[in-house]
Write a structure and sequence with these properties.
The protein has 447 residues and is mainly α. It has helices spanning 11-42, 48-60, 64-74, 78-101, 106-138, 144-170, 175-197, 204-207, 219-227, 230-248, 253-261, 265-293, 301-325, 331-356, 365-397, 401-427.
């Protein structure tokens, strides 16, 4: 009996899955931002401790391919989305309790925090990877740019809403309040996830797997299969290099504004807001042109990805040149251009990821998405650290801060140019022969 695949998601269905990202972002912002501040300010611990814990949760996400493989074997993504969110919520509560323990026993609290951030990394990996696979498989091709924008913006919305709401209930601070607020947010996140994914995937997903791939190779064999796909391998390298460039600027842009342009902390914070506004507008532009207007030219995700990388490189060169020019340089406009370019590149890359995940051998979508997610997580973990190290090194060599920062920004711009070349090569990868046994070419993207 032939099983008919479920119809593509409408806008409401896409928004429902975006709520999962909102829930995920709500827990993550408490663990990586709020608890970071508590450890450093209220508990007066070394900033290296929360920094190491955040880096640890990124490192754990190297498990994403293995987690994606698990969802491939079962053929359903919903259990992994829900299970991952539960693990993430437990990790968030554990991190809050570990922070409370640090008040009296730093060593014990740190050990508990390592376990909690392990759970956070596993939860983000399991839930986030399976969510993107489900969204990619259930979203029509023409709606993928908008779907990528909606999901990203809703995740940022989770950051903002939780930061404002939790901040209100955390004052005046106490360890008990931190645990209660985190537990409340985690519980609400799990509930939202349950409601968001209810009956979205349907039963056809699992049933349609019957007969698709009778052999079930172990994880290493499945990973080798995916890595042998030229398009998947090239896209993995592109994700790593581009996200390394994207994250390397995060921790040095505000210090650059303060050191070179003499901005106050408040002014540099406003500058970060200008950059975030540019990111949002860039994402919305790709969504409108790619999904609302549509068409092969306006909806070409490869074109937007390459263009966003090149524009990001040029914006970084403008910022580097502005440091040498001096106070009269329109720094806000340059930073806005960087944010806009980053937004275009980021959402186009996510849309391309959703489009490419189904290309290649079937029943490997989770491994493929997990591989790209792991590359992104590793790049994010390394990027911020390497950016700050590069500044320290260049400032030891050159006394003039504008030159030191300019060299680092130019280096990041070069990485974006390399990313543009890599993205173009992904778009020109020849079609692979299908491994389904029919000798048919695997589908190419519409763009």
């Amino acid at each position: 009996m032939e099983i008919r695949a479920p119809a593509p998601l409408g806008w409401l269905g896409i928004i429902r899955l975006g709520l999962v990202q909102t829930a995920l972002g709500a827990i993550v912002v408490l663990t990586t931002s709020t608890m970071n501040r508590v450890m450093v300010v209220e508990l007066q611990l070394a900033a290296m401790l929360p920094g190491a814990l955040v880096a640890w949760h990124y490192a754990v996400q190297m498990l994403r391919p293995r987690l994606g493989y698990g969802s491939d074997i079962g053929g359903r993504r919903t259990p992994w989305i829900i299970g991952g969110m539960i693990v993430l919520g437990l990790g968030g509560v554990g991190a809050a309790m570990a922070t409370a323990v640090m008040e009296t026993n730093v060593l014990l609290g740190s050990a508990l925090a390592v376990l909690a951030f392990l759970a956070i990394g596993v939860g983000v990996g399991a839930s986030g990877t399976s969510l993107l696979v489900l969204l990619a498989k259930r979203t029509a091709d023409v709606r993928r740019p908008a779907a990528a924008t909606i999901v990203w913006i809703m995740m940022i919305g989770g950051f903002v809403v939780t930061a404002l709401t939790a901040g209100h209930f955390l004052d005046p601070y106490s360890s008990t309040r931190l645990v209660v607020v985190t537990a409340s947010v985690s519980g609400l996140a799990v509930l939202v996830t349950l409601l968001a994914v209810w009956r979205v995937e349907g039963h056809a997903a699992a049933e349609s797997r019957v007969g698709d791939a009778p052999e079930k190779p172990d994880f290493r064999a499945a990973l080798r299969e995916v890595w042998s796909e030229e398009k998947a391998r090239r896209f993995t390298i592109f994700v790593f290099v581009s996200m390394l460039a994207y994250s390397a600027q995060d921790l040095i842009l505000e210090p650059f504004a303060g050191t070179v342009f003499g901005m106050t902390p408040g002014q540099s914070t406003q500058l970060a807001g200008v950059q975030s506004g540019g990111v949002m507008l860039g994402m919305i532009l790709v969504a409108i042109c790619g999904s609302v207007i549509g068409g092969r030219v306006l909806g070409n995700l490869a074109m937007w990805t390459v263009g966003g990388c090149i524009a990001s490189a040029l914006s970084l060169l403008l910022i580097a040149g502005g440091g040498l020019y001096g106070p009269g340089w329109p720094l806000k406009a340059s930073v806005f251009a960087l944010g806009f370019s980053n937004g275009v590149f980021a959402v186009a890359a996510i849309g391309s990821m959703m489009r490419l995940v189904g290309q290649g051998r079937q029943s490997r979508e989770g491994v493929r998405m997990g591989l790209w997610g792991a590359a992104q997580a590793i790049a994010f973990g390394l990027g911020g650290f390497l950016g700050t190290v590069a500044i320290d090194v260049t400032r030891l060599i050159w006394d003039l801060p504008a030159i030191a920062y300019g060299i680092v920004f130019c280096g990041e711009g070069l990485m974006f140019l390399v990313s543009a070349v890599l993205a173009a090569r992904v778009g020109h990868t020849p079609p692979a022969v299908s491994e389904m046994g029919r000798g048919e070419p695997s589908p190419l993207p519409a763009t």
